[in-house]
Amino acid sequence: MQYLLWINIKASEIVRVYQMRFIVTPRNRYIEVEGEGREGIITFPTWVPGSYFIRDQERNVIFYDYSSQVSKNKFWINGKFKYIYYANSKDQREVISLSDYLFINPVSLFPFQDLNEKYCVKINVDWSIHTTLRKEGEWYCGDNYEEFADSPIQASPHLRLIKIDEKHSISTIDDFPEVEKLKRVIYILDSYLPDSLPNYIFFFRRSDKNLGGIEHKDSSAIVTTWDRKDLIWLFAHEYFHRWNIKRIKPKDLKIDYEHESYTELLWVAEGLTDYIAFLSLIESGVLNATDAMKAAANILQNLTFPGFKRMSIAESSKLTWIKLYKKDENYPNIGISYYDAGFILGLLMDFAIRENNECKKSIIDFFRELYKISKYTYADVKRIAESLGFENLDELVYKRNPPIFEYLGRYMKIIFTDKDKPYYGIKVENNVITFIEDNSPADLAGLNIGDEIIAVDRIKKQIEVKEEVLLTISREGRLKEIKLRAGNNPGHRIRLIGEGKLFKCVFREEKAEGEGEQKII
After folding, report:
1. CATH architecture of the domain formed by 14-157
2. Three-state DSSP class for residue 151
3. CB-based contact 431:452 (threshold 8 Å)
C-alpha cells in the first residue's frame, strides 16, 4: 500500500509540471496567439458555460503553425503552435480586439489539453490590464483550465478601475454614475449568503447593442446600450451568480466544453437569481414598490401567450440549447423562458415561505440550505422548499399550463386590463408585423410575420384596432389586400395590486400596484 501511494503522489507531481502557455498580441480586429503545450491534441471549446448554445468559436481560428486538423475543434500540435483569431465581436461572451481595446473571454480564445494542468497567458500590450487571474511576473495564470477559462481579461489605454468598496470594483472604459446604488445592493446581497469570497470585478462596457451579462466565479462581464434603464438589476443578477451557479449549481450541469450539458433546473439557476436580484433592489431602496410591481407585471405578462400551455418550466430549462437560446419571432407561441417562469416561481416561493413562517423566514433561507449542499438535485430543491412551507412544486415545474396565476392570485390581485377588448393579435414595428399570436384574428386572416403594412383601408396611415380593416401589405415584394376583423383579446396586459402585512414583508410598503407595458394589438 505504501508503494502504491508513493507512485500516485509521484504521478501527480509529474502531471503538475505540465502547463500550457499563450502569448497574445492584439491588433485591430484580430489577435495573434503563440501557444506552447505538449505534442498531441489541443481542443477548442465549442460553447461558453453560462451561455447555452453551441457557438463553435473555433470558426474564428486561422492556424498557420500546427501539424494537422483532427476535427472541427481539435488540432494535432508538435508542442508549439500559432494561430490568429478573428475578434471583431461586440459580445462579452466572445473576444473583442480593437485598436484601443481588448476583451478576452478565455474559453472562447484558448484551447486545452489536460484540464487539470496550469494555464498562463501573457498580453503583449502597454495598456492597463484587469483580470482575476493570478499574476506571476509577466504572466496571468490559473491552476487549471476551468479557473483560467472562467477569468476574463480586459485591457485598454483608457481602462480604469472604479472602486465600489474594498472588495468590489468596476473595470470599464466608460462612466458608471450609479456606484452608490450598486454599493447598497451589493451590501444586501452579501448579507444573504456567506461573503468571505475573493475580490470581485464587474467588467463593463457600453455598446450599441444590449448584450446583457455573463457570470464568472469572481467577476461578470456586462455589455449594454447607453440608455439601458435596469442596469443595477442586471448587475445584481450577475453578482448573485457568484453563489447561485458558481458555488451552488445543479448536480447534472457538468461542464463539458465540447458537448451540451442538460438540466431541468435552469429556472433555479437563472429565474430565482433574477428574483433575488429584484428582492435586493427592493430591500436596498433602489426599487420602490410601485416600480417593482410594474416590473413583476411585465414578467408575468410573458406567460400569457400560447407557449405557456405548450412547454413546462422544466422543459424550458432542458431544451434551452435549441429553444430559448435560438428563439425566433414565433417563440412566445411555442415556449416560455425559464428566466420569466423562474422569477414568478421565486415570487410565489417567497410569499409562501414568509406566510408559513410569520415573515421570519424567506426565500433567502431556501438558498442558505441549498448552499450547504452545493451541487443539488430537484429532490433537494423540493425537499428544502417543502420544509419551509412551499408545496406543489411538481405541478408548477413539470406541468404545462401550470396554475401559476391561480397561486399568485392568493397573494395579490391580478387584473387583465385588455381582456375581451378588440384585438388583432399582432405586434408591429415600423409598419412591419413582428409577431402573430397563434389562432388570433391576424393568424386566421392569413397575415404573416414580416408583412409590411402599406395602407389601412387604402389610406397610408398607422394601423389601429377597430371592428374591421382592409390592409394592403407587401410580402416578399408582392402587394396583397387582406381583410382583418378584430376578435376578443384573451388577456395579455396585467395590473398587479398588492396590500397587507405579507405584501409589506416582500415589497416594503403596505400597498402598491403596477401595470405592465404590452405591445400586442
Report:
1. Sandwich (2.60)
2. coil
3. yes
CATH of the domain spanning 266-413+501-508, picked from 3.40.50.1240, 2.40.30.60, 3.40.50.720, 1.10.390.10: 1.10.390.10
Contact call for residues 168 and 176 (beta carbons, < 8 A): no
- Element (H or E) spanning 299, and its range? helix 289-301
How far is it, in rounded angstroms, from Cα 272 to Cα 188?
16
Spatial distance between the Cα atoms of 391 and 112, rounded to a whole number of angstroms: 45
Query: What's the rounded mean pLDDT across residues 400-417?
Result: 98
The kind and range of the H/E element at 346 are helix 338-356
N residues, the chain: 521
pLDDT band at 16 (very low <50, low <70, confident <90, very high): very low
8 A C-beta contact, residue 369 and residue 256: no
Contacts of 17 (CB under 8 A, 6+ apart): none
Grid coordinates representing 358 are 410569520
At residue 35, the pLDDT reads 96
For all residues of the chain together, what is the average pLDDT? 94
- CATH superfamily entry for domain 422-488: PDZ domain (2.30.42.10)
- The confidence score (pLDDT) of residue 1 equals 31
Percent of the chain exceeding pLDDT 70 equals: 97
CA–CA gap between residue 384 and residue 343 (Å, rounded): 18
Q: Which contiguous run of DSSP H or E holds residue 30?
A: strand 30-36
pLDDT at 181 over 70: yes
Chain position carrying cell 409589506: 504
Position 9 scores a pLDDT of: 37
CATH for the 161-242 domain, from 3.90.700.10, 3.30.2010.30, 3.10.180.10, 3.40.30.10: 3.30.2010.30
Mean pLDDT throughout 224-239? 95
Q: Check pLDDT > 90 for residue 125.
A: yes
